[in-house]
Structures are given as structure tokens and as C-alpha cells.
Amino acid sequence: MLNTSSASLSFNIKSILVGATAAIASLSMALPAAAEDFPTRPLNVVVGFGTGGSADRMARMMSGPLSEEVGVPIQVTNRPGAGTQVASNYVLNMPDDGYTVYASTFAPYLTNSILTGDAAFSVDDFSYINFQWFDLDLIAANKDSGYEDLPSLLEAIREESGQVRGAVVQGSAGHLMVRLLLDEAGIPQDNLNLVTYNSGGEARSAVAGGQVDFVSISAQGSEGIREFLTPLAIVSDERIEQWDALPINEALAPMNLEVPILQGSMRGFAVTSEMERQHPERFEKLSSAIQSALARKDVQEQLERNEMGGVWVGPERSNELMRENYQVFEKYAHLLN
């Protein structure tokens, strides 16, 4: 009797264990794979510019720490062209599974590719995880040009039609700011001999070498030509430590003028908005990984050594900033045509 009961009990326990194991396996299969397994293979970070540029350097510098945070290798590929349209279209045509991440200087280039480049997408087709690197624009004259302040430069453009030469990067915030200044001052756009370049390096070389009288361009990237410049204004509401220049509307006060403060470059990471909609858990994992990487002391030290930004503003604020940038550029886009 005892042996029979023991055998029966053993059988029942085994049955329960088998049943429980099957139930757990069934439950595991029912759970979303994204919540537990993502990522299981390398991520592809697509850069909207060529190698060596600011966005490319940011992506490659961050790829190591991000790889450590997510636990899989990260490969960086460059797809430059058409004001980031090539990269944007590539990312939008990839599966919305979180394995393709977009790294770029989203403002102003993505904005301008939509407003002036006839792009088939919108800023809302992307979900911006974080903008970590912001640039303010600097308006500076060649030190031998004779221009010591912004009003004297603008008055020279007004009075000496076609004689003053300026340099900007095509479609940049600095480009739009120059057009805005002329518009607000009532100076015909044709009075300025404005030369547009495809890269900041070319524009900076032009002003440093005296081929043009002034430049409107990213302040941070201009450290290397500081000795050749007379700063006239910083496109900001307040002074910055790096440059001895008045905030732009303070510089314009003698002329009773005021212009909107245009955000310069905004660099960071994004995915498609459809990816966030379909896989919110994966989006959260990517966001957390970037935030954790930027919180690391070693990462911040490396960013600082390479003169790169490394702030965390998060998805909500990043998306707000992108839409605000688009609205400002949309209002004044006609000045760039």
C-alpha cells in the first residue's frame, strides 16, 4: 500500500512539474520578444554625412560606449548626399525594428531638405531620441576687414552694394541668419556678395584667408581660426564664455533691430517614428542606453577632449526642439530661395 501511494505521489508531482514547465514555456513564447531579447544582433548607425564631419565623429565616438550599454556590436555607415535626404530615405526604407539608428546634424539640414529640397518625408516621420551636441552660430569679420561691430558691417552692405563679401554654409542656420539680418534692416539681398560653401571648413578658410570679409557659422568649430577673426555677434540670448561677442540682439540695439534667435546645429540620434510606435520597449532600451552612456565620466571626458557636446535632453524635449526649429525655418524659408 505504502509503495503504491509513493509511486502515485511521485507520478503526480512529475505530472505537475511537466505541466508547469509547459505552461512557463507557453507563456514565454507569448511574451513580446522585444521586451526581453532586443537587441540580439549588431545595430547599424547610419550617418547623414561623410566621414570626418561632426556628425560622423559623434557617431563613431559614441558607438563604443553604446555597444557596451546594449551588449551587441555597433557598426557605423555613412550615407551622405542631398542635404541628408539620402540617409533619411535609407533609414525610412529599412525595417522599423530598432536595428537601424540615424545619427545626423538634424537641424538645420533635415529641416532644409524638407523645405527647400522637395523631400518626400516630414520631421514627424522620425522620433528623435536625444540631441546631445548643440552649436551656436558666430558672426565674425576677418580681422583686417576693418569691421569692428555688426551695425558697421550692415551699413557697409547697405551703402557699398556688391562690395562686401560674406561666407556661409549653404542652407545652414548661419545662412538664414544673414538673410534675416538684411531683411530686417531693409537692405536689398543683392547688395551682399554672399558666397555659399558646402562645408564649414571651406567657409572658415575663406574668411581666414581674406577671400571674404565675414562669416556666419558654427562658433565651436571656429576655434582654429580665432586669430584671424574679429567677433561681431553670437546668435544667442546671452554671452558665451568661449567668445568675446555680444548676443546678436544686443549687437543690433543701436540700429533698433531685433531678429529671432535661430538654433544652430542640433546633432544626435533618432529612429523612425514608426519604430517607436511598433516597438516602444525597444525605443526605451535605446533611449536608456544613450542616457547611460552620456552619464559615464569616461565618456564625458572623451567628448570634452574631442570638443563634442554630450548633454542629455531626452526624447520629449528633442522632438519639441525639432518641431520648433522647423516652424522657424518654415516661416523664413523664402529668404533662402
TrEMBL record:
Residues 1-35 form the signal peptide. InterPro entries: BUG, Bug_dom1. Belongs to the UPF0065 (bug) family. This is Tripartite tricarboxylate transporter substrate binding protein. The keyword Signal applies. The lineage of its organism: Bacteria, Pseudomonadati, Pseudomonadota, Gammaproteobacteria, Oceanospirillales. It comes from the Bacteria. The keyword Signal applies. Pfam families: TctC (PF03401). Keywords: Signal.
